[in-house]
Amino acid sequence: GGRINVAIDGPAGAGKSTVARRVAEQLGYIYIDTGAMYRAVALAANRAGVLPSDADRLAELVKTVDITLEPGADGQIVRLGGENITTDIRSREVTLKVSEIASHEAVRLRLVEMQRKLAEAKGVVMDGRDIGTHVLPGAEVKVFLVASVQVRALRRYQELSEGELVPLEQLEQEIADRDRSDESREFSPLVRAKDAEVLDSTELTIDQVVAHILDLCRTKT
Ligand code: C5P
Prior knowledge:
Its EC number is 2.7.4.25. The protein is of the alpha/beta class.
């Protein structure tokens, strides 16, 4: 069969990136983490002293920002003007600011344009919030991956480095806040596409989720 595009959306910490990366590996496809692109813009804004609320300066910044994604040994490498920022974009500071940055229309227009170009040739597994609804409405497979907020906070907690330890309840609160912000924004909010399959990973292993998505892909290729 021919190559297809796979869209994996859902709230923070549902396991999208791990699952998407593995599905891409299995299919020999390219994995694209769109959250990393919004995080790269948030990092660039932070470094330039641009506030997450400053629509005009963000619109300027996003015009010139040079973000590239490339496959690496353990996942995707993200570069900003050539500099490897893969680790920097996972900081708490970026995580706390990224949703407001991602709410601006100018930021979204620019990144969505890049994302569509990356998926033009098909053979892409893309994860994010608006992939099935807005970026790739024609994606052959669409999954909306969810999990309880408790499980999502616990997974994030286990990923924190020693220097960043925060109480689990605080993480839960921050994840819930980020979901609310992503769901309630005006431009392409986080919402399930009508034709997306909902997968609840609360009580599933990563392997089970991956196997299920690969089954969906098999019926389309
Ligand atoms: O996926 P990740 O948690 O790294 O995404 C960080 C943030 O980027 C999300 O909370 C959301 O605000 C934004 N985002 C988005 N649209 C996407 C991917 C991410 O608005 N397609």
